[in-house]
Amino acid sequence: MYRVCVKYRITIRLPKQVPEAVGNSFLALVPIMFIAIIIAFIHFVVGFDMTTFLNDFFSPFGSFLVKNIGGVIIVVFLITFLWRFGIHGGSLVQSVTHPFWIIALDENQNALQNGNLIQNDFVEPFFQWFAQYGGAGSTIRLVIIGSIIAKSKLVKTTTRTSLIPIIFNINEPILFGLPILVNPYMWVPFVFSPVAGAIVGFGAQKAMGINWVASVPWTVPGPIGAYFASGGQWQAIITSLIVLGVSLAIWLPFVLWFDRVTTKRETEITNQKEVKING
Predict the structure, then answer these.
(1) Domain locations along the chain
(2) Which tens digits make up the pLDDT trace of 82-136?
(3) Is cis: bond before 179, omega within 30 of 0?
């Protein structure tokens, strides 16, 4: 509808003196009006409830997403897999999953208030504090390892610089600074560490009876965010730390491998510079 209106100039036209940016903001008004009229006609005249239809149509997908570990694994894998091709996996995938997470979390809150059984395990807090704790790819593990034991100047400097931001789940400095996205040494842990975290987190969550009942800002540090999102369950902190340990074990050999290769390259470059200076 928008394209048709713009193509045939069925829009609000303003004088040329009006800045282009301001004029463009009025382009959508007429298409929005037409769309609203069409939807109102369908709803009130035809008697077809579009909202109910869409809810019923997507309900199986939503149920699979918030109640099935398979849905979790697919979502987590897609987020990191798309990052490998330079696509912001979180923005793309979560734009689809977020509405279902909100509905499921609201159902959990209502169940808690009414004293009923909480049934939705895989809402947004699960992804925040277990599957993707420390940013996409669980990269806080890389930063911890590199900050402590790295020998190469690149890895040591980049990870230590990224340490403070990543505590608050901001991992762009390490994603683009190391970098990770075009680094074949990091592909396996970046993609599969969150998957392992989701599986381990799910098992521990079931064993400890953790329920998600609140939405917490994603910039809250992991264990603290898990504690508040679970309604104050200390088991959420323990599980978050367990997931952290498992992911550290996955990241460790790959970080050591990359650090060793990078150290060798840095040594070769330094030796070449010394030869040129002495020569």
Answers:
(1) 1-46, 54-278
(2) 888 888 888 888 888 888 888 889 988 999 888 888 888 888 889 888 888 888 8
(3) yes
Asked if residue 191 lies in contact with residue 84, where contact means CB atoms within 8 angstroms, the answer is yes
pLDDT tens track for 141-196: 899 999 999 999 999 999 999 999 999 988 888 888 888 888 888 989 998 999 99
Coil vs helix vs strand at 220: coil
What is the C-alpha radius of gyration for the chain, rounded to an integer number of angstroms? 25
Q: Is 208:242 a contact under the CB 8 Å cutoff?
A: no
Burial class of residue 235, CB neighbours in 10 A (0-12, 13-18, 19+): middle
pLDDT given at position 260: 92
> Coil, helix or strand for 31?
helix
Torsion angles phi and psi, residue 209, rounded to 5: 70, 40
